[in-house]
Amino acid sequence: MGLGALADVSLVKARSKASAARALVNDGIDPIEHMRAQAVIPAAPKRNSSPTFEEVAENYMADRLKRLRSEAHRHNWRQSLLDYAYPIIGKMPVNAIETNDVLAVLKPIWESKCETASRLRGRIERILAHATVEGFRRGANPATWRGAVAVGVCRERSSQGAR
Q1: pTM here?
Q2: Is there a contact between 95 and 75 (Cβ–Cβ < 8 Å)?
């Protein structure tokens, strides 16, 4: 059984490794198999929390917005999130966002800025869908139009029969 290259393993460390291997043999364990088993299951650091909405949104925009031709459209995308979404849900873990959180972002602007609210809802929906695809969240998208988010539909849209 090798203990490592001479340049990498000091004599003290080699003696320690040899002693540990002898202890395994005394316990009836093959030290080589034991070493292989530990190599198969690496001690990977577990991520305790999901990324924030803001982190996922910035990642999504870095990838998707470069495809937009209009600089004004790219600016509006980012600015609407900065102005309305980030202050309320920006620091929340993306897997903790629920319909009530999305409504908290949208309700203050449904009446005064109907089109902005509608576009912002769609942007949040796309970002949360991206988070789902990336494996950061599971379940239904809380910003989906059909369902509870449609409660705050602007008067102009509901009178036109939109969605």
Answers
A1: 0.63
A2: no
Tens-digit pLDDT profile for residues 91-134 = 999 999 999 999 999 999 988 998 999 999 999 999 999 999 99
Domain extents in the chain: 11-40, 53-160
CA separation for the pair 36, 33 (Å, rounded): 5
Residue 52 backbone dihedrals phi, psi, to 5 degrees: -75, 165
Helix (H, G, I), strand (E, B) or coil at 5: coil
Q: Does domain 53-160 have CATH number 1.10.150.130?
A: yes
For residues 57 and 127, the answer to whether their CB atoms sit within 8 Å is yes
Report yes or no: 16 and 58 within 8 Å, Cβ to Cβ.
no
Residue type, position 32, single letter: I
d(CA 122, CA 61): 14
Name the DSSP class of 85: I
